[in-house]
């Protein structure tokens, strides 16, 4: 096949600068493993790219899009709406509070230990079995308490 010239491709892409950029992008695609759409005939990737453009074997719009994406240094990311930002900040704040209070929490074991009655040696003498008969106790008993006797008729002065 005859060598391709720029004049063969100018019909497809009128601007020579655009032609160079687009054909260079196609040559990079071929180098990266994209399938070749024409016979190679021992030609370099740049010549194969020009031949594909001249024969309308590739989509020029797709090459332009991939060229622009390849040259972009900043990819525009869609910004979150104000409500979403407020919700995210509130969730972060609540997560911080959870961490703060979880570190201040008392473990179950510590809570049980603190609720037990702590006593001295006198506790060993007490027998608090459920079998103990408490019916003999009379709270209105006028009996003696210690050395003094208790009388309901006494008045406090």
Secondary-structure blueprint:
Layout: H1 6-10, H2 16-31, H3 45-54, H4 60-71, H5 82-104, H6 108-115, E1 144-145, E2 148-149
Antiparallel strand pairs: 1-2
Helix pairs in contact: 2-3, 2-4
User: What is the CATH C-level name of the domain at 6-71?
Assistant: Alpha Beta
CATH-assigned fold name of the domain at 6-71 = Eukaryotic RPB6 RNA polymerase subunit
* Major beta-sheet overview: 2 strands, antiparallel
CATH architecture of the domain at 6-71: Alpha-Beta Complex
Please, could you describe this protein's structure?
The protein has 157 residues and is mainly α. The chain is 47% helix and 3% strand. It is built from 6 helices and 2 strands, in the order H-H-H-H-H-H-E-E. It has helices spanning 6-10, 16-31, 45-54, 60-71, 82-104, 108-115, and strands at 144-145, 148-149. The protein has a two-stranded antiparallel ribbon. The longest helix is centred in the middle third of the chain and has 23 residues, at 82-104. The chain is rod-shaped, with a radius of gyration of 47 Å.
């Amino acid at each position: 096949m005859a060598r391709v010239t720029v004049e063969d491709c100018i019909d497809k892409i009128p601007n020579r600068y655009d032609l160079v950029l687009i054909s260079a992008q196609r040559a990079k695609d071929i180098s990266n493993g994209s399938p070749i759409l024409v016979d190679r005939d021992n030609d370099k990737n740049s010549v194969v790219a020009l031949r594909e453009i001249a024969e309308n074997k590739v989509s020029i719009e797709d090459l332009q899009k991939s060229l622009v994406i390849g040259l972009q240094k900043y990819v525009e990311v869609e910004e979150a709406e104000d409500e979403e930002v407020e919700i995210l900040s509130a969730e972060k704040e609540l997560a911080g509070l959870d961490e703060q209070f979880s570190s201040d929490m008392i473990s179950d074991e510590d809570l049980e230990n603190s609720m037990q009655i702590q006593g001295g040696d006198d506790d060993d003498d007490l027998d608090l079995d459920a079998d103990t008969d408490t019916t003999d106790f009379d709270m209105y008993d006028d009996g003696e308490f210690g050395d003094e006797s208790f009388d309901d008729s006494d008045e406090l002065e």
